[in-house]
Amino acid sequence: MEDSKVRIEIYEGDPFGGVCCGPPRITSPEAVEKLRNMLTERSQTVQRLSEEFKDTITIKREIISQKRWDYPEYVRRLMFDSKPLPYIFVNGEAVVTGRFPSYEEFAALLKSHVVDIQRP
After folding, report:
1. To 5 degrees, how large is the angle CA 57–CA 16–CA 14?
2. Which residue of 48, 57, 72, 87 is most buried, as measured by CB atoms within 10 A?
């Protein structure tokens, strides 16, 4: 069953900057609130996709680490080309780079893929 599902892969940057000795210095309460809202929105989008498309998709979400090189070739290629994060893939094909889609944008991206797997 898993093989017949649409694979969504989300590769994101470290929201805390990936610093070795703790989180980055946040300069204001507004910056903290902005980061919190961004993380909450992304989490809610992924949760909603997981719930509403649960029978037709799988979602893999990872933080990119510069210390790892065992990512799939299509991810390494974007890293090598210095494309901005996040990377969004559907069935191994890059569909969005440099921004995190809204739920509506994800749903539109998935529409043709989900219809294809639901056909007999």
Report:
1. 40
2. 87
